[in-house]
Amino acid sequence: MDFSYLDIAKFLPHRPPFLMVDEVLDIGNSHVSTAFTIKPDCIFNENGFFNEAGLVENAAQTCSSIVGKSFFNENDLEGQGTKLIGFISGIKKVIIKECPKVGSKIVTNAVLKTRFDTDDYSVCTLSCTTTFQHIELLSCELNLVIQELK
Length: 150
What we know:
Layout: E1 23-27, E2 31-37, E3 45-46, E4 49-50, H1 52-69, E5 84-96, E6 105-117, E7 121-132, E8 135-148
């Protein structure tokens, strides 16, 4: 399925300059794949490289889209029916092997491991990897809290 028509900014609470996902490559109820091209004016750039904090933020934004997706109506392709807030509640592990250069297009894949829903929020654990040209840059396991703003 082609997800290139989705404007991810309409579904994530982040806004430039803090939006670290450009496009959704694939998404389902338990997985997601995103892409992000690191622009020269990105706030997480240091000495020509996308830094560690940027890699973790990209992973968290990618991960949040799996659970966030469930808050939206399937026909809401503009992201207008729901407003969400999310945050990292815990980093179980993170391994950063390399930081990519500015201009690189990274691909991040996440898989939902566990999810607990209440009436007010969802708590989830996800595993995630980020690559550049099939070279692993980051692997991590994150806990996130996603909440719908009423």
